[in-house]
Design a protein that fits this description.
597 residues; mainly alpha; 3-stranded antiparallel sheet; 21 strands; 10% strand; globular; binds 1-deoxymannojirimycin
Length: 597
């Protein structure tokens, strides 16, 4: 088994930013190595000693025991001289006995040697300086990211994504026809947070030299906003490098023509050169999508904050005002809204795809405003109440799930995307209308359901969507829903729940997912999605999604780090896991910037 690259230890801290207009001080991460390391190292040595360190040591005697199939007999035998008292000794008689004793003795010596080696290694570690220990731990925790990044660097550099099996570049229509290095931009802050500074600088250099938005290419406004603008802003806030802010603003200017519609609800796509916008052909009645035009607020408020130009803030507040005025069937927001007429399309409501991050951004707008944007908080609370009433149910087997509302009917199906809501409920618990305990519990129930969707597969990785229908619970039924494309939402929820409860089950579940990704998604050229999580020999889809580096690996890293790495009262993660600082603007004024309330 490959040794996964994450260990449950943390020594780095990215402190809160002290945001104070008008100038924006940048901050670099300060590092702290806790004394806990030493204790944890000693502890881990003893765990190794006692249990063979199945997961952590490359050469584990436990593997050998399994191979020989003698585990049941051998494990109770600690001292050969006491064989007569050993129940296992009665199992083997006659001519085999001598050979068996030799094998037993051999294995015992092997185990002893392994244990001594582990102790020696622990002693060696204790002789090292803090910096050396920190570097070693960082290296272990970074291994998955290094594998994903190094292969992208080698085979897909400058392309949007990587085909890790074909070992070449890859792209989808969300990024248009140009190669805009989506993986580089999406991965930057993860590299920074993990302390992979050479790789970070490499990415920065590519951006300085190559990232150009004056291209004749039609891109998704939503995807470019959450991955590129979000990624560039987070890289700027973490590193203080001006280039990221400059590129974020250049790109945002190119997105503005998408808002030139009769209602101000933006088109789904815009041509970066011509500024011509349009919607997806598949969207109901030419509609724009709630989760797309409703997931711009965080980045656009930061853009106004950083530039002093109110235009971005005005665009997203206009969307909010328009939504507030609209009638909502059963208090629910439909996923489709026509940007020409300002009318809803199909009455389809979802906390998964097409709806998801709209709700997330209402909550995060409030958090990001240092909890002063009460309007956003009220919209979130109202929306969540309606969702709970109409969409959230318990299955016969007691699993809480979030269904989808389609024309007055609840479809008992939950998407992998909707699993992010466990973390959202937990994050929004504090500040809710006297229901903090309830929402934390609800978040935990969703986390449990999503874990079940992983646990009920052959690979221990979750399907794209799963049903609750009669005897079927948390299992995908249709072949087309059985894939796993390296998505982050379940691990994201584990991480939030871990931060708020410190219940060890979330780290355990995160570790299970890590092992499964290592086992089934790692290939020589990076990481790939799989086509069927119920097949023990799944085919790969040959795509390393940029969000795997931006989100999945970042959330895993954070799950196994301390709470002082990006504390949640100072940082708010956009929907692509790019951390943006809380804006503490209550008593300050920026001339011309209405982002200041
Ligand atoms: C990411 O790009 C974002 O999390 C987005 O909000 C929806 N899902 C993908 C990853 O699954």
């Amino acid at each position: 088994m490959t040794t996964p690259a994450l260990l449950p230890l943390s020594g780095r801290r990215i402190p809160p930013l002290n945001l104070g207009p008008p100038s924006f001080p940048h901050h670099r991460a300060t590092l702290r190595l806790s004394e806990k390391f030493i204790l944890l190292l000693i502890l881990s040595a003893f765990i190794t000693l006692c249990f063979g360190a199945f997961f952590f040591l490359p050469d584990s005697s436990k593997h050998k025991r399994f191979d020989l199939g003698l585990e049941d007999v051998l494990i109770p035998h600690v001292d050969a001289n006491k064989g007569a008292k050993n129940p296992g000794a009665f199992l083997i008689h006659g001519p085999d006995e001598h050979r068996h004793r030799e094998e037993e003795e051999h294995l015992r010596n092997k185990i002893r040697a392994d244990h001594e080696k582990a102790l020696e290694e622990a002693k060696e570690k204790l002789k090292k300086s803090r910096e050396e220990i920190r570097a070693e731990i960082q290296t272990e925790k970074n291994k998955m990211m290094k594998h994903a990044w190094d292969n992208y660097r080698m085979y897909g550099w400058g392309h949007n994504e990587l085909r890790p099996i074909a070992k070449k570049g890859h792209s989808t229509n969300i990024f248009g026809s140009s190669q805009m290095g989506a993986t580089i931009v999406d991965a930057l802050d993860t590299l920074y947070i993990m302390g992979l500074h050479d790789e970070f600088r490499d990415g920065q250099k590519w951006i300085e030299d190559n990232l150009d938005f004056s291209v004749n290419s039609e891109v998704s406004v939503f995807e470019v906003n959450i991955r590129f603008i979000g990624g560039l802003l987070a890289a700027y806030y973490l590193s203080g490098e001006e280039i990221f802010k400059i590129k974020a603003v250049q790109l945002a200017e190119k997105l503005l023509p998408a808002f030139n519609t009769p209602t101000g609800i933006p088109w789904a796509m815009v041509n970066l050169k011509s500024g011509v916008g349009r919607n997806w052909g598949w969207a109901s009645a030419g509609s724009s999508i709630l989760a797309e035009f409703g997931t711009l607020h965080m980045e656009f408020v930061h853009l106004s904050y950083l530039t002093g130009d109110p235009v971005y803030y005005k665009k997203v507040m206009h969307i909010r005002k328009l939504l507030q005025k609209m009638e909502r069937p059963n208090g629910l927001y439909p996923n489709y809204l026509n940007p020409r007429t300002g009318r809803w399309g199909q009455y389809h409501t979802s906390v998964g795809g097409l709806g998801d991050s709209f709700y997330e951004y209402l909550l995060k707008a409030w958090l990001m405003s240092d909890r002063t944007d009460h309007e956003a908080r009220k919209m979130y609370d109202d929306a969540i109440e309606a969702i709970e009433k109409h969409l959230i149910k318990k299955s016969r087997g007691g699993l809480t799930f979030i269904g989808e509302w389609k024309n007055g009917h609840l479809e008992k199906k939950m998407g992998h995307l909707a699993c992010f809501a466990g973390g959202m409920f937990a994050l929004g618990a504090d500040g809710s209308r006297d229901k903090a305990g309830h929402y934390l519990e609800l978040g935990a129930e969703i986390a449990h359901t999503c874990h079940e969707s992983y646990d009920r597969t052959a690979l221990k990785l979750g399907p794209e969507s799963f049903k609750f229908d009669g005897a079927v619970e948390a299992v995908a039924v249709r072949q087309a829903e059985k894939y796993y494309i390296l998505r982050p939402e379940v691990i994201e929820t584990y991480w939030y729940l871990w931060r708020f409860t410190h219940d060890p089950r979330y780290r355990q579940w995160g570790w299970e997912a890590t092992l499964a990704i290592e086992k089934y998604c790692r290939v020589s050229g990076g990481f790939s999605g799989v086509k069927d999580v119920y097949s023990s020999t799944p085919a790969h889809d040959d795509v390393q999604q940029s969000f795997f580096l931006a989100e999945t690996l970042k959330y895993l890293y954070l799950l196994f780090s301390g709470d002082d790495l990006l504390p949640l009262d100072h940082w708010v993660f956009n929907t692509e896991a790019h951390p943006l600082p809380v804006l503490r603007l209550a008593n300050t004024t920026l001339s011309g910037n209405p982002a200041v309330r």
